[in-house]
Amino acid sequence: MPARTATLPDSLRADVETLWDYHDMHHEPRPADVGIGLGSHDLGVASCAIELFGNGFFPLVVFTGANAPTTVDRFPRGEAVHYREHAIEAGVPPEAILVEPHARNTGENITFTRQVLAERGIEVGSIVLISRPYQQRRAYATCRKLWPEVTVTCASLALPLDEYVAAIGDADRVITMLVGDTQRIDVYARKGFAIPQEMPDRVREAYDRLVSAGYTARLI
């Protein structure tokens, strides 16, 4: 595997772009009852929620997430807590934000957020699910399994692949996460954690080549 760099290796670019495009649901933003920001190492999730809230796409945002080994150093008080602080600093009113600080995976993000909203008597018919760009498809499939009665639109901070890699500062990490999320599309559907998603041959072939190139750290 190449040394740590913020630039995609030319030899892998086509395959990485294939996976990047596959995980983007290409949903057009539309108004919803609630925005849900899924916790991760990527503060861009909160930035996307701030932007959509400011443009009037939803009146309430729930940030959900505890910590994972990849986030505890950056967000020591918890992913959702740091997201909330970032949003308030950007001008989102505190009363427009709910925090779900316990979820440790995407399934828990959805389940625990539903509980938080239900406990407050908030009726939800539509949501904007905000995640890292390469998490969109998995988050969508998980939400459709666990919360099938709501209308789901996926959103992420609108950054081209190269800009996203540069912002994260580690191409290896982005590629590894892309590969891991691609595997999970199939695995989680088989386990009943998510609804099945079609995966074109070109995506499977790109995934196989990246696995062969050594990007296996996030495989189950």
From TrEMBL:
One of its GO terms (cellular component) is plasma membrane. Residues 46-160 form the DUF218 domain. It holds the Pfam family DUF218. InterPro entries: Cell_Envelope_Assoc, DUF218, Rossmann-like_a/b/a_fold. PANTHER family: DUF218 DOMAIN-CONTAINING PROTEIN, INNER MEMBRANE PROTEIN, PROBABLE PERMEASE. This is DUF218 domain-containing protein. It comes from Amycolatopsis pretoriensis. The lineage of its organism: Bacteria, Bacillati, Actinomycetota, Actinomycetes, Pseudonocardiales.
